[in-house]
Amino acid sequence: MFHANQGAAPAEQELIVRRLRNQRVPLAILPVDQASEIERVYPLVKEYLDMRYEVAKESGFGEGRPIRVLVDRNVAASQLDAELDLPCFTAR
Prior knowledge:
two-stranded antiparallel ribbon; 3 helices; globular
């Protein structure tokens, strides 16, 4: 979770990216209305997300505020949720 510029210093961003690399994070959720702020405030994290993840879906999911669901290109989904048309992942 990134909020209010917490973790925005380059050393903190590097720590965030290291943690993302070392943990299994098959999904990332990005509020569409905050995408430009994340790109500006967290450029190292954004670069990692762009390199590792792809957009699975962008939708408000009936709630109005659109979100972007990113999936890790290196983690295979166990199935596809028929209702949301999104990949599902099982715990290792």
